[in-house]
């Protein structure tokens, strides 16, 4: 029944890994991106490059990969007062959340994605949210997205499935998943063509990819890559 998916695709490491995960499982896969005035809007420029590279790498993926959709959610950026939508210094707020948290972002993303999926006849929504190794965003939690799945299904009056394949993976495991799906070539594509840095820095190349190297997103990606590169101990 659920054989057609819509992937929330930002152009970053996690959403790229999720896109390949979906291409392995569903007969038709479309992508959706959101321009909300993010500071790292360079990620949106990576989306086309990544999609083209995935199609070139695997003819079966090219056959399954359908249309790409870009939505203008500039109002979200104008409503937000965060380090992701302004030049503010990245720090933690009094409530314990980082000021890179954009309130309502994932809730809105999935709601708009569900509306598009309704029109396109897609019943699976795929997102790269993760509770194991993340920046403390409450809208990335498993319970948040499970409850959202129920609300969206009721509101659209049709069953929708919200899939989050990275939910219980740390960043090292996300690198390993990319390798399992597409081998070293996909790992290299993630390093070379995706973007995760909060500051939008793409002039500095690190072993794990491009970025400033100091923002929380870069630190998390670098730490995960270092762990991924360490030899795995056999367990018996």
TrEMBL record:
Its cofactor is Zn(2+). Binds 1 zinc ion per subunit. Signal peptide: none annotated. The keyword Isomerase does not apply. Gene3D superfamilies: HUPs. One of its GO terms (molecular function) is zinc ion binding. GO terms for biological process: tRNA queuosine(34) biosynthetic process. It holds the Pfam family QueC. ATP binds at residues 9-19. Pathway: Purine metabolism; 7-cyano-7-deazaguanine biosynthesis. Zn(2+) binds at residues 197, 212, 215, 218. It is an enzyme of class 6 (ligase). Catalyzes the ATP-dependent conversion of 7-carboxy-7-deazaguanine (CDG) to 7-cyano-7-deazaguanine (preQ(0)). NCBIfam families: 7-cyano-7-deazaguanine synthase QueC. Belongs to the QueC family. HAMAP family: QueC. This is 7-cyano-7-deazaguanine synthase.
């Amino acid at each position: 029944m659920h054989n057609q998916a819509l992937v929330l695709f930002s152009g970053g490491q996690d959403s790229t890994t999720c896109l390949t995960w979906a291409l392995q499982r569903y007969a038709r896969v479309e992508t959706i991106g959101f321009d909300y005035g993010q500071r790292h809007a360079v990620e949106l420029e990576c989306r086309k490059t990544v999609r083209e590279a995935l199609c070139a790498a695997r003819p079966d993926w090219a056959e399954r990969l359908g249309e790409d959709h870009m939505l203008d959610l500039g109002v979200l950026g104008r409503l937000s007062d965060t380090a992701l939508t302004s030049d503010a210094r990245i720090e933690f707020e009094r409530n314990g959340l980082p000021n890179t948290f954009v309130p309502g972002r994932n809730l809105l993303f999935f709601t708009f994605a569900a509306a598009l999926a309704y029109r396109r006849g897609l019943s699976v929504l795929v997102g790269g949210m993760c509770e194991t190794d993340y920046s403390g965003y409450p809208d990335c939690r498993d319970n948040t997205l499970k409850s959202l799945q129920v609300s969206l299904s009721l509101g659209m009056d049709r069953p929708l499935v919200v899939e989050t394949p990275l939910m219980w993976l740390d960043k090292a495991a996300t690198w390993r998943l990319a390798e399992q799906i597409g081998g070293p070539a996909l790992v290299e594509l993630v390093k070379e063509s995706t973007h995760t840095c909060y500051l939008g820095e793409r002039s500095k190349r690190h072993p794990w990819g491009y970025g400033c190297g100091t923002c929380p997103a870069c630190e998390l990606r670098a730490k995960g890559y270092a762990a991924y590169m360490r030899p795995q101990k056999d367990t018996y």
